[in-house]
């Protein structure tokens, strides 16, 4: 599910969980641990996070089927914490992190790419947060690091996608290349960094985080509170189940009290 190796002072992390690289609870914690271990390795001077090229996209967020199959809140709590740990691990990694994005980058993928220091993308890469269509919220914190504020709101409310070429125009994607050149582009940038003084680069990463105008970890944790709140209402369950079953949503509710999980289990 998560592979890693060190090549020429560059740690490479590959997410490989077909068909769409959605990660279960355990996968998120494993990814966070892998990134942290590489950042602490004195031989590592940069980290690349990529997806298995045989999978259609970079990362599709959480495993909704795992959440839908759990009648308790345990999986939701676990995946909330796992995502938080992974995004924090990317942000706090002691060396620069390069996200190499191909295909779709959704949900948790936005959290990874948004917290990375540098993003390179294939020319078929698209980015988006379909969270509102799944009865969840979150990662607007990280999307805000990729697009301007009003664009973020439009993407978030509509669930629309944005292309790598558009992000290149914003300056938040460093390079857009053909898909078969993606890892070469990421490695080229990583090697430029790896040739510099390791102690200077590590202090540079720490100093840049310290002057960030937004505390991304605190901001994302605040967003997660709303995801959990939504889970106490019936809409989130129905939206997730409709997605798993590939069908239309049965009903839409606006305002008023919607039964929570405990109430809906009663005969």
Question: What number of domains?
Answer: 1
Q: Which percent range describes the beta-strand content?
A: 5-15%
What is the gyration radius calculated from CA atoms? Answer: 19 Å
Please give the number of β-strands. 9
Q: Note poorly predicted spans.
A: 254-267
**CATH topology type:** 2-enoyl-CoA Hydratase, Chain A, domain 1
Structural class: alpha/beta
User: Which architecture does the CATH hierarchy give at level 2?
Assistant: Alpha-Beta Complex
* Approximate shape: globular
**DSSP helix count?**
12
Largest sheet: 6 strands, mixed
Distance between the termini: 40 Å
Q: Determine the CATH superfamily.
A: 2-enoyl-CoA Hydratase, Chain A, domain 1
Mean pLDDT: 90
Strand order of the largest sheet: 1-2-3-4-6-9
SSE order: EEHEHHEEHEEHHEHEHHHHH
Give the fraction of residues assigned to helices. 40-55%
- What is the top-level CATH class? Alpha Beta
Characterization of the model:
The longest helix is centred in the first third of the chain and has 19 residues, at 74-92. The protein is built from twelve helices and nine strands. It is globular and about 55 Å long. It has a single domain (2-181, 194-217), classed as Alpha-Beta Complex (2-enoyl-CoA Hydratase, Chain A, domain 1), CATH 3.90.226. It is an alpha/beta fold and 267 residues long. It has helices at residues 25-40, 64-68, 74-92, 108-115, 140-143, 149-158, 164-170, 182-194, 198-210, 216-231, 234-245, 261-264; strands at residues 2-7, 10-15, 46-51, 97-101, 104-106, 118-122, 126-128, 161-163, 175-177. The model is unreliable at 254-267 (pLDDT under 50). β1 and β2 form a beta hairpin. A six-stranded mixed beta sheet has the order 1-2-3-4-6-9, with helices on both faces. The N and C termini lie far apart (40 Å).
